[in-house]
Amino acid sequence: MVSFMFIAFWILVVPLLLPGRTxxxxxxxxxxxxxxxxxxxxxxxxxxxxxxxxxxxxxISPANFAHNLLWILLIINVIxxxxxxxxxxxxxxxxxxxxxxxxxxxxxxxxRWNIVIPTVTHPMLVPYATYTPTLTEISIxxxxxxxxxxxxxxxxxxFPAISIWELAEGHEIQEAQxxxxxxxxxxxxx
Length: 190
Description:
The protein is mainly alpha-helical and about 190 residues long. It has helices at about 1-15, 30-50, 65-90, 95-120, 135-160, 165-180.
């Protein structure tokens, strides 16, 4: 979840910070560097999915060290891949926006998953039939309603519900009606 948000932020911000023609001069801003980094990310991800006993590094070092080293290398290569595609993202802002928004949607979905699923797996701790709210819960609820009313009143104080031009037009109509004398119908005396 955090990784998706970090990558989306990177995609939207870092390409804008690059100077104009940097991609031709600097090696790590070239597409070839992005391809090499993407390959390294794939290999490292595969090594992370394998059991620790299969890793060649595990034979000469403790398992935690090898696992942590692979994660560090994976993160460095992901950053290298993002640097490699930054020039392309700068020249294609629409594609960058679509990619970043897709990553944000997936990241937000993972966050909701993280919030909902663990709470659903536990049985209800409080039976609703005998539940009575505490003073703290009642005061928080009342404070939220009071905060809404306060914000509503401040909003209508700063931005009136009736626009000023409608009020001015209403005054002009009233003044015109006062100046206008409408003759009363004559009594024909019948």
